[in-house]
Automatic annotation (TrEMBL):
Annotated source species: Kribbella antibiotica
Domain of life (superkingdom): Bacteria
Protein name stated in the entry: Uncharacterized protein
InterPro entries: MmpS_C
Highest classification ranks of the organism: Bacteria, Bacillati, Actinomycetota, Actinomycetes, Propionibacteriales
Gene3D superfamilies xrefs: MmpS1-5, C-terminal soluble domain (2.60.40.2880)
Amino acid sequence: MKRRVPKPLLIVLLVVVLAYPAFQLFLLGYTGVRMLVAGQETHEVVYKITGTADRPDIRYVRDGHRDSVELKYASLPWESSKLKTKGSAQVLSVSALQQLEDDGSVRCEIWLDGALVESSESAPGTGLSASCTHLP
């Protein structure tokens, strides 16, 4: 005599076999949406250069990717305007370099959404330069 599988057990097996791939697709879609939303987030960036150096050159990244700005012979203290960047995988960078002989100091800071995320100060005897880079 042939044994039959009870119908409720077949239904449970069918639901499990079909539900697992559907659940995986749901998780993949959820992750994709989270990544898309993170890529659209707007952040506020402020760069600051302080110190006693006499008119250093300042270079900073404006949009977080490729648009850099160079200022020759900037007066200190210097602060960028509030820059808006999109996404979370951005490179934030600012540097100051004193071309002339100077016994002063220079310090750089990166502020992201109102919080200090990176700072650096020139070391004595190594020339006047400071560079800050942050990868959020």
